[in-house]
Design brief:
Radius of gyration: 22 Å
Helix content: 25-40%
Distance between the termini: 55 Å
Strand order of the largest sheet: 18-19-17-16-22-23-24
Shape: globular
Largest sheet: 7 strands, mixed
Number of strands: 24
């Protein structure tokens, strides 16, 4: 019996078949969709593209495997909103998490309630990432969309709706709206009424609860068995944390894909008096998630490839990256990247910041910029880890996942910069794997998602050498001061 896990990311959708008895991954398929940018700070995706790519991925899987599927789970990117009308159709594209059009609305909310007034209730900072400023933007500039909407769905919720016909959401996604009390686990009615935004979010469930079954029409369209249960699902970050086996305090997961997230399980909603570290609800009742994200990281590497390595295919670039970067000494011979090409999120929180390249000389090559970028992202994660430990959360180990974990040279840099043991889980597809586990629990085929954890294996482990760690400590302090002064311009 197989459980189908679906991971709807920012750039691609991934499906995974998990053998429930052995917990082995049987099949993986993935496909890409477009992010539309009608204006420089806008980022939109078409929900119909998500559904189309899901169908295309399932067509890549043999029919005999599809027939063995007995449950479905879905995880996804967060904060974006799909507006659904009374006929069940989407009212246009989804304004996704990285869209920055509502930065002014986020500042307006902060001016009204104060930074602490928002943070202490939601553990989020007012920022264009989250759903509240997005809804306020629509209230101002496209009020007809709010009026016509029957329900607000986040990306994962949209796929669950198309699978089951049911409007649902879960606590992990609710906690990323900036309209949800993270301690009381309930919506903050005042935030809706203050700005004349009707609360049209659907019923809340815990991530492993069943919320419906695959409908007959959907089964015919996708080639799935009809009537199989579908789990409520979760946001991608708590799913990645779980899939990496990091369910104990002290294990931090660093996930680098389009962006970089730093997350760790918490037994209580950690409160940072300086409001730098954000927290969300985990998939399991009684658990929270240190859930702090940077801005453009992996996407910045893509920008470098597109603009500086047009003579390379992507495969060629990634085949060469470790070899070429290893030729350049630590510190990139003075080159520094300020990786704020889509503003600065944690821990700086400067939404209008811009990126920079400094320290360049005629003797530097494009590979110096690549290494400097890898170092900068490691420094930014180190800034977050330092704050976390200053708040009393001990960091014993960092588990790296996502595309950024494939480079051994980058892992070496990270271990030295963090001064921590760094390891990579055997299973590459942490979020999709978790989705499949949630589906199996929703179907009653496993007693608890934690059954999966004993199966987590680590394929590589790296500890920093004392000399390299000391060398990078100096470069890190230098970077921290440089970034601080650079960001003062904004």
């Amino acid at each position: 019996m197989y459980s189908l896990g679906v991971d709807l990311g920012t750039t691609k959708l991934k499906v995974l078949l998990l053998d429930i008895e052995s917990f082995k991954i049987i099949r993986v398929a993935e496909g890409y969709y477009r992010t539309y940018r009608p204006k420089p700070q806008w980022a939109e995706q078409d929900p119909n593209d998500w559904w189309r790519v899901l169908a295309e991925c399932l067509k890549k899987i043999p029919r005999e495997d599809l027939e063995k599927i007995v449950s479905v789970g879905v995880v996804s990117q967060r904060e974006g909103i799909v507006f659904i009308d009374k006929s069940g159709r989407s009212l246009g594209r989804c304004v996704i998490w990285m869209d920055r059009r509502c930065t002014k609305e986020a500042l307006e909310i902060e001016e009204e309630y104060g930074l602490e007034g928002i943070y202490y209730r939601t553990r989020l900072r007012p920022d264009a990432t989250f759903s509240f400023p997005k809804l306020l933007w629509f209230r101002k500039y496209s009020p007809e969309v709010l009026d016509k909407a029957e329900v607000y769905l986040q990306p994962k919720d949209y796929l669950v709706y198309r699978l089951t016909g049911e409007y649902t959401t879960d606590y992990t996604l609710a906690s990323r709206t900036m309209m949800f009390d993270i301690s009381k686990l309930k919506w903050i009615d005042e935030f809706f009424s203050k700005y004349d935004i009707p609360n049209k979010f659907p019923q809340l469930y815990w991530s492993s609860e069943p919320v419906g079954e695959v409908t007959e029409n959907t089964a015919c369209e996708l080639g799935l068995p009809k009537g199989i249960p579908v789990a409520a699902g979760a946001g991608d970050r708590p799913a990645e944390n779980f899939g990496a086996g990091a369910v104990k305090e002290g294990i931090v997961v660093e996930s680098t894909g389009t962006t970089t997230s730093v997350n760790s399980v918490l037994s209580k909603p950690l409160l940072d008096p300086d409001c730098r570290i954000i927290v969300s609800v985990h998939m399991t009742p009684g658990r929270w998630l240190l859930d702090t994200g940077l801005s453009s990281t992996g996407s910045l590497l893509e920008w470098v490839i597109d603009n500086m390595f047009r003579d390379f295919s992507r495969d060629e670039f990634f085949e060469r990256i470790d070899l070429e970067v290893s030729k350049i000494p630590p510190g990139s011979e003075g080159v520094k990247v300020l990786p704020f090409f889509m503003g600065a999120r944690a821990p700086w929180w400067k939404p209008v910041a811009r990126g920079g390249l400094i320290g360049l000389l005629l003797g530097h090559s494009r590979w110096h910029i690549v290494r400097a970028l890898m170092e900068a992202i490691a420094y930014e994660v180190k800034l977050v880890l330092d704050i976390v430990e200053s708040l009393g959360v001990k960091v014993n180990e960092v588990r790296c996942i996502g595309g950024g974990a494939r480079s051994k040279e980058w892992l070496k840099i990270k271990s030295a910069v963090y001064g921590k043991k760094v390891c990579v889980p055997e299973a590459e597809h942490a979020a999709a794997l978790t989705a499949a586990v949630l589906g199996a629990k929703a179907a009653g085929l496993i007693s608890s998602p934690e059954e999966y954890l004993s199966k987590v294996q680590l394929k590589s482990l790296m500890s920093p050498s004392a000399d390299l760690a000391e060398e990078y400590r100096r470069f890190y302090l230098e970077y921290r001061e440089t970034a601080k002064r650079f960001l003062e311009f904004f």
